[in-house]
Amino acid sequence: xxxxxxxxxxxxxxxxxxxxxxxxxxxxxxxxxxxxxxxxxxxxxxxxxxxxxxxxxxxxxxxxxxxxxxxxxxxxxxxxxxxxxxxxxxxxxxxxxxxxxxxxxxxxxxxxxxxxxxxxxxxxxxxxxxxxxxxxxxxxxxxxxxxxxxxxxxxxxxxxxxxxxxxxxxxxxxxxxxxxxxxxxxxxxxxxxxxxxxxxxxxxxxxxxxxx
Length: 212
What we know:
Layout: E1 8-12, H1 23-33, E2 37-40, H2 47-64, E3 68-71, H3 74-80, E4 84-87, H4 94-101, E5 106-112, H5 115-124, E6 128-132, H6 148-157, E7 162-165, H7 173-178, E8 183-186, H8 188-191, H9 196-204
Parallel strand pairs: 1-2, 1-8, 2-3, 3-4, 4-5, 5-6, 6-7, 7-8
Helix pairs in contact: 1-2, 1-9, 2-3
């Protein structure tokens, strides 16, 4: 089975931006606006709530034929049958996640500002890697910063897709696409906006080739 490409708007949920009762509708609006991947990110310790929400989101994403990626939690991804998982520096090893989720799972790895981590992740079988924060981020104001020059260097060195994250707006996003980013991971730029569908569409249109 061919895996869907990691390309386009990669919308990431945030419990602080989206009330529980609006989560499903908010994600559907992002999908209608053109999001090509959805990541469920919830750092709360409420396992029952996270399971319920992940199941609902996975059913929604399957209806739209868009991959749902679970942040950090390999077991939750397995339990709900999500398309994959995204791993950070403190999460299970990529090989462990691959064994648990199977060859068809989409596995992304956060590489922060380090090309060496990305090269190692590619060698270990990651499907895509993420660098950032590229710009100051309202979601994670103290996040490690990665440069546009690093994205350019990574594009020359890697064969797998590159995700840029952190403070990305429709205005600064073209800089990242120009140096080789395949996907733009966005949190508040989508889910922190009054019109989520319109906000998502502004990013999605950046991936439409210009007319000849």
